[in-house]
From TrEMBL:
<protein>
    <recommendedName>
        <fullName>succinate dehydrogenase</fullName>
        <ecNumber>1.3.5.1</ecNumber>
    </recommendedName>
</protein>
<keyword id="KW-0001">2Fe-2S</keyword>
<keyword id="KW-0411">Iron-sulfur</keyword>
<dbReference type="GO" id="GO:0022904">
    <property type="term" value="P:respiratory electron transport chain"/>
</dbReference>
<keyword id="KW-0003">3Fe-4S</keyword>
<dbReference type="InterPro" id="IPR009051">
    <property type="entry name" value="Helical_ferredxn"/>
</dbReference>
<dbReference type="GO" id="GO:0009055">
    <property type="term" value="F:electron transfer activity"/>
</dbReference>
<feature type="domain" description="2Fe-2S ferredoxin-type">
    <location>
        <begin position="2"/>
        <end position="90"/>
    </location>
</feature>
<dbReference type="InterPro" id="IPR017900">
    <property type="entry name" value="4Fe4S_Fe_S_CS"/>
</dbReference>
<dbReference type="GO" id="GO:0008177">
    <property type="term" value="F:succinate dehydrogenase (quinone) activity"/>
</dbReference>
<keyword id="KW-0560">Oxidoreductase</keyword>
<dbReference type="InterPro" id="IPR036010">
    <property type="entry name" value="2Fe-2S_ferredoxin-like_sf"/>
</dbReference>
<dbReference type="GO" id="GO:0051538">
    <property type="term" value="F:3 iron, 4 sulfur cluster binding"/>
</dbReference>
<dbReference type="InterPro" id="IPR001041">
    <property type="entry name" value="2Fe-2S_ferredoxin-type"/>
</dbReference>
<dbReference type="InterPro" id="IPR050573">
    <property type="entry name" value="SDH/FRD_Iron-Sulfur"/>
</dbReference>
<keyword id="KW-0479">Metal-binding</keyword>
<dbReference type="InterPro" id="IPR006058">
    <property type="entry name" value="2Fe2S_fd_BS"/>
</dbReference>
Length: 237
């Protein structure tokens, strides 16, 4: 057993404050989420924490841990190399309670870029055609499809912090993922949406979005691929 101090930024809807807890970690391989739930179950049932899969798939447990946006379920005590852990809600998001933030604005921005395959409806539903893909066509967008929309990239982005209307890396990555899909015919529609200051041209190339992605997606690179496609007036990225 190892004693760990967790400093949590609390919020009750009216005021915020830092609260400190001391917990016993069974091993260095315990996750920050496990420690937070230990606090909630054994010391303070009022602590609000959002989580679900515990496998870095659902993206529910995003928070700022020791100054870096991370998934609490994926962050182990051994990764932090310290006995003092600070935890606060994701930056650039409205806090609902304690470590739970409102991700709805992020999802609304993703919806704006039409995150689905766009084709002639008749071609899809009134024919027997199959829309196959070659391996090289899949490779163009496969890595970018790993996004779990956890919001970490939005929390890390300095432009999102200062420009509320900026679509942000999560939405722009989705724009690339679907536009680069060989089955999609919606590039012209999405190009009009992202070819603005609030779109790809608002990106300052900080690449903090890519640095914090828990799934290894590179949204910073996908944004640059979108810029290149717009400048080339390409038929698709």
């Amino acid at each position: 057993m190892k004693s760990v101090v967790i400093k949590i930024k609390r919020y009750d809807g009216k005021k915020s404050w830092w609260q400190e807890y001391k917990v016993e970690a069974p091993s260095e391989r315990v996750s920050v989420l496990d420690l937070l739930l230990k606090v909630k179950e054994e010391q303070d049932p009022t602590l609000a924490v959002r989580y679900s899969c515990r496998m870095a798939i659902c993206g529910s447990c995003g928070m700022v841990i020791n100054g870096v946006p991370r998934l609490a379920c994926q962050t182990l005590l051994s990764d932090l190399k310290t006995d003092v852990i600070t935890v606060e809600p994701l930056w650039n998001h409205k806090v609902i309670k304690d470590l739970v933030v409102d991700l709805e604005p992020d999802f609304e921005k993703v919806k704006k870029v039409k995150p689905y395959i766009i084709r002639d409806i008749k071609e899809i539903y009134e024919t027997d055609r199959e829309f196959g893909q070659k391996p090289e066509e899949l490779d163009k967008y496969y890595n970018f499809a790993y996004c779990i929309q956890c919001g970490l990239c939005m929390a890390a982005c300095p432009v999102v912090a200062t420009h509320e209307r900026f679509l942000g890396p999560m939405a722009l990555n989705a724009a690339y993922r679907w536009s680069a899909d060989s089955r999609d015919q919606g590039w012209k529609e999405r190009a009009k949406i992202i070819d603005v200051e609030e779109g790809v041209w608002g990106c300052h190339l900080a690449y903090t979005c890519s640095a914090v992605c828990p799934r290894g997606v590179d949204p910073g690179f996908s944004i640059q691929l979108l810029k290149a496609a717009l400048l080339r007036r390409a038929k698709r990225p």
